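Fill in residues.
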């Protein structure tokens, strides 16, 4: 059903969202809370929405983070609902944790800490036992070692820069790298021809790709066998990207010295060669604030003006207001949709002041500014066009 803009938007929060982001929602135009019924939009962090009955009133979902595998994106596509995320907002936090993982593994810090915690006796005894046993925890230094990075998005690029500053050699692999990402990547990063090429030449391997059907168990038995002996594998992306049974096989064969990841697992728990953390990648005050501010701004711009930035299922499109009267139309990316929408406007005698249209895969999105109010009949007719998924009328109301 088409929706007319109303003065107060209702925002449901499924997790605690930083107050720094929530305060951007003006109290005169937004009602925000965890007990909102019939919400216009939903803000979420880690809450699993896959089995959730998402109300028909929802016009947008904002994920305060990069990954959206906890959101039913395909279902939202059918409804014409954009799913926003915040790429890069928590990249520095993840980068720092990757560096911590590199150091923990290269210097054998976790077993060393466990050993020290187990010592008993007076200070003299502790010092004697520590000196006698420290050789078993001798590690390696990072300069001159090769770090292979699979995925050169926001996090991968920051990790590459940090590793280069530490004196490491860096090899990268990302067949889907964007033009912007390529421009921002250091020329010192050597391009790997394939994942196998990267694994054969890297002593450390870190993963920075989203969890998709194509990346599930990206690191599998066959690829583990391509690794150098004693590889340190780091996964601060998503747990499903790595086949844990392949990791265990790699540890047993000597291909993997340590597996460092951000995802607890019963299969890997208590294994001496596995370091697991409780999903701390974005768990910093700064990252939570950055994500909250970014997703709030994106949501406000969409709800009030129909502009789309950083939606995982819609094209990016922003258009400055040319008039107070705007229609936003989400539709299947099929021929003649734009013509039918324009015809509907012309039939109503509406003069189009400005129009923007973008497509992404099977989804297309149109913004239309007209010089006079849009009649409800016209909105209904456009909504009834075969292939139209959602129509929103976004007039700037008096007093706004």
């Amino acid at each position: 059903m088409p929706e007319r803009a109303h003065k107060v938007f209702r925002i449901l929060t499924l997790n605690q969202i930083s107050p720094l982001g929530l305060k951007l929602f003006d109290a005169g135009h937004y009602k925000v809370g965890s007990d909102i019924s019939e919400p216009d939009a939903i803000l979420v962090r880690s809450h699993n929405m896959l089995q959730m009955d998402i109300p028909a009133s929802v016009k947008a979902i904002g994920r305060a983070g990069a990954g959206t595998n906890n959101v039913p994106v395909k279902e939202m596509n059918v409804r014409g609902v954009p799913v926003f995320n915040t790429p890069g907002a928590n990249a520095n936090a993840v980068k720092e944790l990757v560096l911590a993982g590199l150091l923990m593994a290269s210097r054998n810090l976790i077993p060393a800490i466990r050993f020290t915690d187990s010592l008993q006796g007076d200070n003299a005894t502790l010092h004697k036992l520590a000196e006698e046993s420290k050789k078993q925890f001798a590690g390696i230094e990072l300069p001159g070692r090769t770090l292979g990075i699979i995925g050169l998005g926001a996090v991968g690029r920051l990790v590459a820069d940090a590793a280069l500053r530490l004196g490491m050699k860096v090899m990268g692999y990302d067949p889907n790298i964007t033009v912007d990402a390529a421009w921002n990547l250091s020329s010192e990063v050597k391009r790997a021809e394939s994942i196998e090429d990267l694994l054969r030449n890297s002593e450390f391997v870190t993963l920075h790709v989203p969890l998709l059907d194509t990346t599930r168990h990206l690191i599998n038995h066959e690829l583990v066998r391509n690794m150098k002996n004693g590889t340190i594998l780091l996964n601060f992306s998503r747990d499903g990207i790595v086949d844990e049974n392949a990791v265990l096989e790699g540890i047993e064969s000597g291909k993997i010295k340590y597996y460092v990841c951000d995802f607890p697992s019963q299969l890997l728990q208590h294994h001496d060669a596995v370091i697991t953390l409780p999903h701390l990648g974005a768990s910093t005050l700064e990252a939570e604030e950055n994500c909250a501010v970014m997703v709030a701004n994106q949501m406000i711009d969409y709800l009030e003006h129909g502009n789309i930035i950083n939606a995982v299922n819609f094209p990016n499109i922003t258009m400055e207001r040319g008039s107070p009267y705007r229609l936003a139309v989400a539709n299947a990316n099929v021929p003649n949709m734009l013509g039918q929408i324009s015809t509907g406007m012309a039939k109503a005698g509406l003069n189009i002041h400005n129009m923007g249209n973008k497509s992404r895969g099977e989804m297309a999105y149109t913004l239309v500014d007209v010089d006079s109010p849009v009649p409800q009949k016209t909105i209904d007719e456009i909504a009834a066009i075969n292939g139209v998924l959602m129509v929103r009328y976004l007039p700037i109301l008096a007093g706004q």
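Residues 220 and 243 are 5 Å apart (CA to CA).
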